[in-house]
TrEMBL record:
Protein's UniProt keywords contain Acyltransferase: yes
Transferase in keyword set: yes
Protein name listed in UniProt: GNAT family N-acetyltransferase
GO molecular function ontology, one term from the record: acyltransferase activity
Transmembrane stretches, start-end: none
Domain N-acetyltransferase positions: 1-192
Extent of the signal sequence: none
Key words, A-Z: Acyltransferase, Transferase
CDD domains: NAT_SF
EC number(s) per entry: 2.3.-.-
Amino acid sequence: MIIREARPADAPQIAPLMNLIYDEMELTDLEDVPGPDLLKVITAAYRTRTYLSGAATTVVAEANGQVVGVAFGYPGENEDVVDDVMTRLAAQSAAFDEPLDLDSETAAGEWYLDSLAVSPDHQGQGIGRQLLRALPIYAQRDRQAVIGLNVDLENPGAMRLYERMGYEVTGKQMIGDHEYYHMQLEIGRPIRVTN
């Protein structure tokens, strides 16, 4: 198993994993978008510099040359820039009848883990845990000392994983039609980047 930053060529393997999350979230903005069209938009997003190593970071778990897990996050202050990529790509697709309207998900002063997904064929093998262990490196690189995330109240398995990894509930919020716990993990002082 290799944990590494994603490359543009990984996008077609990342998209179906991210789509698993969108399906679980039951976002009304996406319910009428045909699956293949949504996958095209997600794939295009994960080919952008913004998503891979710009305003956000995408980290993948690779096994036998295949992407089997993905984590996607960014400093909270970059949320609008990150959301703009998906909004712009959706607007360019004829499959979206209305503009995509994304809810704010982050809390101030955190590196936000927007998405974590593992292929159904590889769940229960510790891949999510390995991705979570790698995230402090990227958060500190982005000069953040806290990692935040949201977990659906209806997903107790994910909640247990985050709690085992040291995340603590800091509040609740609505995203789409689901209520989520907002959780955070303090990772310590950010590393200093010198030139």
